[in-house]
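As a next step, the fold was encoded as tokens, giving this record:
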Amino acid sequence: MTYAPDQLYSEVAYVAYHFHWSREEILDLEHPERRRFVDEIASLNTRIQSGR
């Protein structure tokens, strides 16, 4: 299975921006683990924006 390059760049940029991890560190993650971090960051951002 191949991974859409635009989606991969988006995920790497998102995690790197929020966690300040290097591209190599993020790319070393398995896809499900990387998606989990993306989802967790989004959840944190939502809670912060809603004041919870």
